[in-house]
Structures are given as structure tokens and as C-alpha cells.
Amino acid sequence: MYMAPKTDITRADILPMEEFVKLRKDKRAEVVAVKKNRRVGVGPFCTFYFENYATMWWQIHEMLFIEKGGEEQVADELAAYAPLIPKGRELVATFMIEVDDAKRRPAVLAQLTNIDQMIVLEFGPHKVRAVPEDDAERNREDGKTSAVHFLRFPFTAEQVAAFRAPGTRVLLAIEHPNYGHIAVLPDAVRDSLAADFA
């Protein structure tokens, strides 16, 4: 039986911390398994982490566990992370530019201004361009981009059907002049992401 994905998280979904602590080890194993098929590396240092209800549920609980801010913190975490849950006809990703060398990192980020506006999913005749979240300005006037971006990929009904079709070859492309790279989504990743559509 098909169950539609959860597209929102509310206060009612947040466990009391003492209950979460008891379940934390098992929940960590569950979310690690979920995330395994929701991560896509593109080129030498860009990674996409596709979010859903399970990943955001875990993120909120971990923030509450680590920071111990109590009830006051719950509203802040919900406000920060609930918008990153796909709403039924979109994919949502945390996009990270992961340069391990701290001395090299600023120079790399300075060459990648507006990279968040040059990302596309391609499959068959379809192109779904990423739309950056506008919660903060992540590209500075001096050209330096942020190491972390939040992206939405809005789909039409036709694109959802094409993406879901078994065997569909999906490419995730970065079209920046200083970072032109493409990755093919493994079938397990495409299947996992296809489940985000309501």
C-alpha cells in the first residue's frame, strides 16, 4: 500500500528529550541508512544531501540533544529545518562545498560565486533547475560564495512522472564556468528521491 511522504514537521512530532535519548542509537542507525541513498557527490568537492522528513526529524532532535535549549529552542529548530522537507512536488537539498584544506578554501569559494544558481537535474528531455533558498544572501559582493546552500528543485507533474519511471537516467550537473561537473544518480538514489513526491 502506497503511503504519501510526510511533507511537514510540527511540535507534535518532537519527542521529549528523555524519550529521544532512549531511542537515539536505533534512530541514528535508521537515519544513516536513509541518508546513504540521498547523498550525491559532484566533482572533487561538492556534495548534495537530499533532505526529507526523516533527515530533518533527526536534525532537529540532534540539535535539541546537543544544545539542550529546552522548549524555547524547539520553535527555533522547527523554523529552521521544517522548510527543508519536500512539499510533494519538489526535491530539497543541502548543497555543500567541502574543501578540507582551510588555507585553500577561501580561494575556492571566491571562484564559485552564484554556483547555487547553476545547478540542474537532467533526465530525458527534462531539465529541473535548482532554486536557492532566499533565507540569507549566500553570495557576497566580493564574489565569495558560502560553503553551504539550500536548494529546491521544483517539478511539474510531467517531470515527476518521468523522474519516477524505472530505469530513468538522471544527471545532476553543476554548470559553473569554474566548476563544470556532472554525476549520474545511482538507481538507489533516484528511487529514494522519487519517494519524496506526493
- Rg calculated over all Cα atoms: 18 Å
Helix content: 25-40%
Secondary-structure element order, as H and E?
A: HEEHHEHEEEEHEEH
Give the count of structural domains: 1
User: Structural class, from secondary structure content?
Assistant: alpha+beta
Strand order of the largest sheet: 1-2-3-7-6
Largest sheet: 5 strands, antiparallel
- Name the poorly predicted regions: none
Number of DSSP strand runs:
9
Q: Estimate the global geometry from the Cα principal axes.
A: globular
What is the residue-mean pLDDT, rounded to a whole number? Answer: 93
Spatial gap, N to C terminus = 14 Å
Strand content range:
15-25%
Number of helices, where a helix is a run of at least 4 consecutive DSSP H or I residues? 6
Report on the architecture of this protein.
With 198 residues, the protein is α+β, with helices and mostly antiparallel strands. The chain has one domain (11-194). Helix content is 35%, strand content 24%. It is built from six helices and nine strands. The strands form two sheets. It has a five-stranded antiparallel sheet. It has a four-stranded antiparallel sheet with strand order 5-4-8-9. Strand 8 and strand 9 form a beta hairpin. Helix 1 packs across helix 2 (53-67) and helix 2 packs antiparallel against helix 3 (70-81). The longest helix has 20 residues, at 17-36. The chain is globular and about 50 Å long. The model has no long low-confidence stretch (mean pLDDT 93).
